[in-house]
Write a structure and sequence with these properties.
By secondary structure, the chain is of the alpha/beta class. Helices cover about 45% and strands about 15% of the residues. It contains 15 helices and 14 strands.
Length: about 400
């Protein structure tokens, strides 16, 4: 395990810069209240832009709001409110309830547990909501979960998926990125047990089913070090001030720092662009950048056992495609899936989960008839474009929607 003071050092650094960020925030508000005649002054705008960048520097550890108060259904705006359909110490099954009684296909969206909150899928949900009754796995920040609730590993994640699907009854499930392996495992286990809540369809989007295929830089990094290196260098303990004090975690700030370093020049350009947009009064452009980084900089800690087991079983030992993945000692066999239709979606430019890695699920689910399986490779999109953005809305989502309807 990394030094337990690693998290404490991070917390101390945050505390140290907090007054500077607070003063910069006050300066922004003060500069916003200057007389109208000075508001457009280039120097005033530049000072305000610089202070806003300082005020926004750093990560947060609270889940942002989903912020979906209404959806457009036909010609009507329908109100949406959030309800907890089930709650455990580690996650909430969150239901987006619409003030409309029209029956729609029930869909469980399984969010990644990889350093960000489920709100990263806000755009996915907003697209799904008009035609579907939507639920999502809203994973809790591990640093807020007291140690008396015990560990949370890959088996526990898989168990949560199965229990949440049982709450919904026969429904449809969409796994985005990292959860594709435990979700496929959950469906196989439910099929093997003849569980009445086995889903009608399974959509796997840009997930690491078999990372031996077209390995990316992310896959190579996972293979470059022994598991002991990850445990000794990346796992630390939650400081005493938080509810999860003493819990071993892989901190979200380490995960995000690693991701940012992979594309550091892009993030620097984005913040230079934000400064220019603020200084020049380009409100819409600046707000789009701020919205993105408000979400991107909201980090979530993973339990040590979940992170290390994912590295080991998914990225190093490739247990699912090799037929050795086990759930509480019971081998997972996707060949038993015969009723749940399968759709896989990949992005042609994905540099996190390369084309072919998710498609591998088709060979594993050999018990499914060919007409029950479909694959879509989307040209021109990277990892995030698979589930958000223009091509998701106009080209990928219609395929997902039609697939769900065909198996309803």
């Amino acid at each position: 395990m990394a030094s337990p003071v690693l998290y404490q050092a991070y917390q101390a650094q945050c505390d140290l810069v907090a007054p500077t960020r607070a003063m910069a925030s006050l300066a922004v508000r003060a500069l916003e209240s200057v007389p109208v005649g000075l508001a457009g002054n280039p120097l005033i705008r530049s000072l305000s832009a610089g202070n806003e960048l300082v005020a926004r520097a750093g990560f947060t550890h609270r889940r942002p709001a989903f912020g979906i108060p209404t959806v457009q259904m036909g010609e009507r705006q329908v109100a949406v409110h959030e309800e907890a359909a089930a709650v455990t110490p580690f996650g909430t099954l969150l239901h987006f309830v619409k003030d409309d009684q029209v029956p729609q296909p029930r869909v469980l969206v399984v969010a990644p547990l990889s350093g960000h909150f489920a709100t990263l899928l806000r755009a996915t949900l907003r697209t799904l909501l008009p035609e579907h009754d939507v639920f999502i796995t809203d994973w809790h920040n591990a640093r807020d979960v007291p140690v008396e609730h015990g560990p949370f590993g890959l088996d526990d994640y898989t168990e949560h998926v199965m229990r949440f699907l049982e709450v919904l009854g026969p429904a449809h499930v969409i796994a985005v990125c990292q959860p594709c392996v435990p979700v496929l495992a959950a469906v196989a286990l439910m099929a093997d047990a003849s569980n009445p809540a086995v889903p009608k369809s399974l959509t796997l989007m840009a997930g690491p089913i078999d990372t031996r295929i077209n390995p990316t830089k992310v896959n190579e990094l996972a293979m470059a070090k022994p598991l002991s290196w990850f445990e000794q260098n990346l796992i630390t303990k939650v400081p005493a001030r938080h509810a999860g004090k003493g819990r071993p975690v892989y901190p979200g700030f380490l995960q995000l720092t690693a991701f940012m370093n992979m594309n550091l020049a892009r993030h620097v350009r984005a913040h230079l662009g934000l400064f220019n947009d603020l200084a020049l009064g380009r409100v819409a452009e600046a707000q789009a950048t701020k919205d993105f980084y408000d979400e991107y900089f909201a980090v979530l800690d993973m339990t040590a056992e979940f992170y290390l087991e994912t590295i080991r079983f998914v990225f190093q030992e490739h247990c699912l495609p090799r037929g050795t993945l086990a759930y509480r000692g019971r081998v997972v066999d996707p060949r038993v899936i015969t009723r749940t239709a399968l759709l896989t979606v990949e992005g042609a430019n994905d540099d996190i989960c390369a084309p072919g890695q998710t498609l591998a699920a088709h060979d594993l689910c050999s018990g499914l008839k060919t007409y029950r399986k479909r694959h879509h490779l989307q040209p021109g999109v990277g990892h995030y474009g698979v589930f958000s953005g223009r091509r998701w809305e106009s080209q990928i989502y219609p395929i997902v929607q039609n697939f769900i309807l065909a198996n309803e």
